[in-house]
Every structure is written in structure tokens, then in C-alpha cells.
Write a structure and sequence with these properties.
The structure is a single chain. This protein is mainly α and 41 residues long. The chain has one domain. Helices cover 95% and strands 0% of the residues. The longest helix has 39 residues. The chain starts with a helix and ends with a helix. Keywords: Membrane, Transmembrane, Transmembrane helix.
């Protein structure tokens, strides 16, 4: 039971980290996109 709880916590941490990584990636992409649009003006 203890092992199951530990693996569940690790899976949750991994999921949260992956979501944060995707969020930062999208944020950075939109920032570059907006900067590109500003440069085109």
C-alpha cells in the first residue's frame, strides 16, 4: 500500500511538472509570436 501511494505521488508530481513545462512552452511561443508581429509593424 505504501509503495502504491508513493508511485501515485510521483505520478502526480510528474504530471504537474509536465503541465508546467507545456504552459511555459506555450507562453514563450506566444511571446515570440507577438514580438514577431510587433517587429512586422
Amino acid at each position: 500500500m505504501r509503495q502504491f501511494v508513493r508511485s501515485g505521488i510521483m505520478r502526480t508530481i510528474f504530471t504537474v511538472l509536465s503541465w508546467i513545462f507545456v504552459f511555459l512552452l506555450v507562453l514563450f511561443y506566444f511571446r515570440v509570436l507577438m514580438k514577431g508581429y510587433f517587429w512586422m509593424d
